[in-house]
Amino acid sequence: MKLWPYESFIVETSEEIPELLEKLGLHIGSAPFFPWSKRSKEFIGTLNETGFKMYRAIRYYNSFLPVMLGHFEPRLGGTSVIVRIRLHGYTLACMIFFLVFLKKFTWGLIGPKFQFDAPFYWGLGVPATVILAIYLMAIFGFSYESDRSGELATKILSGK
């Protein structure tokens, strides 16, 4: 399990960039018009000479579906593909917004003139539980999907 919704790895391949583009082009498609329609490719995204941006083509909704960003670096005898897996920007922005709102709301309830007594601790228990729940949702949702996406991308890139 990851402690942060971010992962990176490098795939070394003996293929040159044009061969990788052709191979990845077989697995990356555009987003369908209807979300429930059948997907013909494993990934949805864009691909160019410098790299790719893609995510797995799934038929269910998952806010924590990771985005894979790849960068091609030519090397002697092949190519290095540097892959970063992260949360989608909107998901990350919503989580940060909600946590900032929760902090402001909690500080507004407790106030700057708090006393260390039972109601104070009860007042911190609920926000702390919500923060922990948000963190665990993000970590478990991201870990599950990033493992599947990373394995599939590695198989495609390495040709195994």
Feature tags:
160 residues, six-stranded mixed sheet, alpha+beta, 45% helix
User: How is the largest sheet built, in terms of strand order?
Assistant: 1-6-5-4-3-2
CA-CA gap between termini: 25 Å
Overall structural class, as computed from helix and strand content, comes to alpha+beta
Mass-distribution shape: elongated
Largest sheet, if any? 6 strands, mixed
Task: Spell out the helices and strands N to C.
Answer: EHEEEEEHH
* Share of helical residues: 40-55%
Low-confidence stretches: none
Mean pLDDT: 82
The gist of it:
With 160 residues, this protein is an alpha+beta fold.
Describe the structure.
With 160 residues, this protein is an alpha+beta fold. The protein has one domain. It contains 3 helices and 6 strands, in the order E-H-E-E-E-E-E-H-H. The chain has a 6-stranded mixed beta sheet with strand order 1-6-5-4-3-2, with helices on one face. Helix 2 (89-110) packs antiparallel against helix 3.
Question: What topology emerges from the helices and strands here?
Answer:
Blueprint lengths: L5 E8 L3 H9 L2 E2 L13 E5 L3 E6 L10 E9 L2 E9 L2 H22 L7 H41 L2
Parallel strand pairs: 2-3
Antiparallel strand pairs: 1-6, 3-4, 4-5, 5-6
